[in-house]
Amino acid sequence: MAGSEQPPAAAGADGGLGDRSLSQGLSVLVGLALCVTMLGLGCAVELGQLGQQLRRPVGVLLALLGQFVAMPLLAFLLALLFALDEVAAVAVLLCGCCPGGNLSNLMSVLVDGDMNLSIIMTASSTLLALFLMPLCLWVYSRHWINTALVQLLPLGAVSLTLGSTLLPIGLGVLVRYRHPRAADLLVKVGTPPTGRPGGVVVELMAHIPASVYAIAVLMPLAGYALGYGLATIFKMPPHCRRTVSLETGCQNVQLCTAILKLTFPPQLIGSMYMFPLLYALFQSAEAGLFVLAYKMYGRDSYKQEALGEEEDTDISYKKLKEEEVADTSYGTVTAEERGSVPMEPTQTAL
């Protein structure tokens, strides 16, 4: 019947409402995922370790150099090298300016790294991102200043999204201080899963150019190499070098996705908000190869290093025992001294 047919305008309106509802639902899910991730990050921080690192802030300095000097510059150079347009360039730059992700904490355990250093670098880079991430994004986006997207770059909204992560991080630190067992559970929940993308995600990723795929492959790999070189310059031991390497290459893709989804207009950013997921896939795969290579070839050197530390401890202990024996033997009388007759000085009469 003619009366039962829906007008085209009404059908278009219903479709628009459906797309808007889907977009709002996706934004809520992205926000919740970010809150859970930041809560897990806060639960991994212990106040005693934080105070110790602040007294000797090597981890904070490495996080500053790796996440806000090396990685943003790397993202900028790759965007220029592959001649990206402004939309893809902003997505790549935003991912490069993000702080470290908590995936590196898990990977550091698998390569016998310094877990305390890994957690401190992740937490400090997240706090530093409140000021340095908008600054780096503003500096490196000047090359595309003549485009509408960069001219309307929502740096204020980016800062607001970063500031909203302070609440779950602070709550996580409080949970760690009051309820350590609950904090251990929340750390496991907050670790991002690396699963297979769904059909909608695959369809969106099909529209991403091949040059962006190449950057997603090269960027984490170069980040791992830059982090290892940076730790070598600071003359850190091998297990700390592996930790800094993973911390530098692993980015907080949950935060990058949330910023792209919540602060940028969808009609401008298009499918590029899927770039963090693409980066996450390759950074996980390459970190897995890193772990596999270490398990096959590097574990023996780690055991020798640990054995060398134990031998140094044994030598120090033996030296300490010898010094104690020398101290206790001071002033004792031997058998020969017992049998000898003391010679007394005689005075001659004048």
From TrEMBL:
Pfam family name, one: SBF
Molecular functions per Gene Ontology: bile acid:sodium symporter activity
Region called Disordered, residue ranges: 328-350
GO CC terms in record: membrane
InterPro entries, per the entry: BilAc:Na_symport/Acr3, Bilac:Na_transpt, Na+/solute_symporter_sf
Compartments (UniProt record): Membrane
Keywords: Membrane, Symport, Transmembrane, Transmembrane helix, Transport
Residues passing through the membrane, by range: 26-48, 60-82, 88-107, 119-140, 152-175, 212-234, 273-294
Topology term for the membrane: Multi-pass membrane protein
PANTHER family named in the record: SODIUM-BILE ACID COTRANSPORTER (PTHR10361), SODIUM_BILE ACID COTRANSPORTER 4 (PTHR10361:SF41)
Membership in a protein family: Belongs to the bile acid:sodium symporter (BASS) (TC 2.A.28) family.
Name of the protein in its database record: Solute carrier family 10 member 4
Organism: Cairina moschata (Muscovy duck)
